Design the sequence.
């Protein structure tokens, strides 16, 4: 499973990239708003650090404006992926971009049929939001499983990007469910390599070694 970081914070992106296992970045309007910096400037900075796909989300809500904004975002760097909402307008823009060879990430996907439609339109990525479904009492992971099954049934090439990942167990369940990619906050990435027994084990090994050899 590929690992993306879900942030617009450059320090977090650099730190995650330094782990050596980061495949890409996702951003959204909420994440860039926290940074209080021009979106294009930050995207250019991110693309200088990460060579994998960097998702840049449009603010526009109608197809024509999405196409204009998406084109401008895609011109920032060759690894920009235009992030569009999973609406009818977004679907039209997705089809137009895929016909032009511009990669898209179809975001805010909450049902398998949205994922099916965007795959037909040639989306590069689809982003089902697990955490936000859990928040309303549904099981977000079922959406990942269902999309995986639909895509495998028909051989769709669109990658399933599990989004709205809130904790490391989400990440494990995504990998078990066959998500192609998971995007998550830096803390969740850090948590993947943490276990109290690992720390205790290191302490005990060092203590035993010191006792024997000084
Ligand atoms: C995905 O690309 C989104 O940026 C993100 O995962 C949203 O997550 P949230 O529900 O924690 O805001």
Sequence:
């Amino acid at each position: 499973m590929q690992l993306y970081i879900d942030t617009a914070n450059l320090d977090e992106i650099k730190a995650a990239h330094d782990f050596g296992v980061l495949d890409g970045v996702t951003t959204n309007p909420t994440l860039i708003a926290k940074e209080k910096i021009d979106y294009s400037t930050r995207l250019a900075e991110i693309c200088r650090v990460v060579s994998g796909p960097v998702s840049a989300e449009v603010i526009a809500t109608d197809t024509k404006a999405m196409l204009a904004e998406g084109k401008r975002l895609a011109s920032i760097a060759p690894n920009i992926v235009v992030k569009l909402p999973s609406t009818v307008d977004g679907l039209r823009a997705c089809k137009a971009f895929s016909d032009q060879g511009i990669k898209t990430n179809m975001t805010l996907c909450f049902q398998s049929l949205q994922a099916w439609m965007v795959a037909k339109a040639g989306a590069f990525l689809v982003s089902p939001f697990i955490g936000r479904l859990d928040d309303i009492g549904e099981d977000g992971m079922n959406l990942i499983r269902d999309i995986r099954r639909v895509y495998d049934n028909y051989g769709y090439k669109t990658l399933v990007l599990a989004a709205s990942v809130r904790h490391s167990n989400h990440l494990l369940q995504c990998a078990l469910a066959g998500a192609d990619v998971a995007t998550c906050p830096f803390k969740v990435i850090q948590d993947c390599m943490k276990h109290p027994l690992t720390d205790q084990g290191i302490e005990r090994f060092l203590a035993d070694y010191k006792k024997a050899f000084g």
Observations:
- The pocket of erythose-4-phosphate is lined by residues 6, 26, 28, 107, 127, 129, 131-132, 163-164, 183 (CB under 6 Å).
- The first strand starts at residue 2 and ends at 6.
- The mean pLDDT is 98.
